[in-house]
Design a protein that fits this description.
The protein is of the alpha/beta class. Helix content is 48%, strand content 7%. The protein folds into two domains: 17-84; 123-272, Dna Topoisomerase Vi A Subunit, Chain: A, domain 2, CATH 3.40.1360.10. It contains ten helices and four strands, in the order H-H-H-H-E-H-E-H-E-H-E-H-H-H.
Length: 300
């Protein structure tokens, strides 16, 4: 038999009539997506932990693999919207092009409508958010970006270049006399704690060398207190990971999206001055209106 012609997995958009057990799982996934419609797209791992917490779904790699396969089939069959699930896709690089000068001008007018000032301007501390799980970053960005707070994925910070770039960014801000604080969200396990400690030490040392002072790193989630208070599902540390760690492990995705978003929002709001923020927003609106008018994008 020609191995090339043999396919064991569906390709393209594939009709599917799931068996009762699979149909029940699809319906449970649909329910999770409906419950967290304001936080879509979710990663499959986020859905997995909601099923573990609310449906008694097995917290095993076998069960997770089954979930991945079921969601794959359901998306191909149109039972789950593609846009509701986030997975790390391929990168794309290309030049921006326009049909004609009028289309370029139209885009500039649209950009003017989105004009924003630095919304952290004048605040007592400048914030950054680092998220260990890249899949959660878009959800957290929807919380942080309206405040002008950037969200970075810290999983890639085993890169020396990434650490160096962040240190320069922090140093540039702190040279103006404004303290910097990094709010970190990651797993409560040996890897997550090592990543947090390594980042704080390495980036902190680089920043101090550049501007004479260090930023403050705060472990925002997952903490042991949160794991206990929220009753999050736990697992023993992997026996192959011999780094020092005490207690059971907890994945950041185990915190439901609404709660995690609330933790981040509360942390940002307790560190900002509302009056200062209101002044920046008022000036931003004034400048935006002037810019739109100058480009001819206002209403007639």
């Amino acid at each position: 038999m020609n191995a090339i012609t043999k396919r064991t997995r569906p390709r393209g958009f594939a009709p599917w009539t799931p068996r009762p057990a699979s149909l029940e799982l699809v319906q449970n996934v649909q329910a999770v997506l409906a419950d967290y419609a304001d936080h879509l797209p979710l990663t499959i791992r986020q859905v997995f932990y909601r099923l573990v917490a609310t449906q008694g779904f097995d917290k095993t790699e076998t069960a997770y693999a089954r979930l991945c396969e079921t969601v794959n089939r359901a998306r191909r069959a149109g039972l789950i919207r593609f846009a509701a699930i986030r997975d790390d896709g391929p990168a794309r690089y290309e030049w921006i092009s326009y049909a004609d000068p009028a289309s370029f001008l139209a885009e500039m007018q649209a950009d003017a409508q989105r004009f924003r000032l630095d919304r952290q301007s004048g605040q007592a501390v400048r914030l950054w958010v680092l998220c260990e799980a890249g899949g959660m970053a878009p959800m957290l960005a929807r919380v942080a970006n309206p405040y002008g707070v950037p969200v970075l994925t810290s999983g890639g910070f085993d890169s020396l270049t990434a650490k160096h770039d962040l240190a320069h960014e922090l140093a540039a801000a702190m040279e103006t006399g404004t303290p910097a604080e990094i709010l970190h969200l990651g797993d409560l396990d040996p890897s997550g704690e090592h990543l947090f400690t390594s980042l704080a030490e390495d980036v902190g040392a680089m920043t101090e060398a550049l501007c004479g002072t260090r930023p403050h790193f705060t472990r925002l989630a997952v903490t042991r207190e949160q794991a206990d208070r929220l009753g999050l599902p736990t697992a023993p540390p992997k026996p192959t990971d011999r780094r020092q760690f005490s207690g059971e492990t907890v994945q950041a995705e185990a915190i439901d999206p609404a709660t995690l978003s609330g933790i981040l929002r509360d942390a940002i709001e307790t560190r900002r001055d509302d009056d200062t923020a209101a002044e920046v927003l008022a000036l931003e609106a004034e400048m935006r209106a002037a810019l739109v008018a100058k480009l001819g994008g206002g209403n007639d």
